[in-house]
Amino acid sequence: MLDRIKAEVLAVRIIPNVDESLAAQYGLKPGFRSIGMLTTTIDDIGYTALDEGTKRAEVEVVYARSFYAGASHASGPLSGEFIGIIAGPNPDEVRSGIEAIEHTIQYDAFFEALNADRTHALYAHVVARTGSYLSRLAGIEEGEPLAYLIAPPLEAMYGLDAALKAADVRLVKLFCPPSETNFGGGLLTGTQSACRAAADAFRESIIGIAKQPVAY
């Protein structure tokens, strides 16, 4: 079993009644005037957690971006490698969304280390039921299962091929390397069991590369 690498929430703020000009820039829908924002040390965990927030509260994701070069080269101590912003009709709903996001980051989503110093890692996370954010990103219906697969560039492309051949899944979003954080990967959909089989194949193929990187 690979060691887990958890993300850390670095900063959180809620604005109960956001300025009208900012609301317009974020494209907030009528009645949504409260926003919550947070930064984390790992972007893909942040995206996964934002989606969970949309399932637990009346909120939607209005902004989510990775920062260039990753947390090791962050612009400040509270920047990390990701910012996410959600909006809702009132502060209570936004607070509930933030709490769901924080819970996912703390307990449910994690990278896995391929070496002792944790500098080589992968993300093979299965979302049993997507919320509004990942569904929109993947172009699928809300509530569909999703395999969220991320790794360093070569490992990601090789692993995706193994995942697609291992189960009855289809690729709905490709993250061509390099991403802002110099990784790559994709989103696959199918039944929940198929997504888990695909994630397992992705993981095992990359473990093989880590053990013998030039033995092709």
From TrEMBL:
GO cellular component terms, semicolon-separated: bacterial microcompartment
Keywords assigned: Bacterial microcompartment
InterPro entries the UniProt entry points to: BMC_CP, BMC_dom, CcmK-like_sf, EutL, EutL_PduB
NCBIfam families documented for this protein: microcomp_EutL, PRK15405.1
Native source organism of the sequence: Paenibacillus thalictri
Protein name, as recorded: Microcompartment protein EutL
UniProt keyword Transferase, yes or no: no
Domain of life assignment: Bacteria
Localization: Bacterial microcompartment
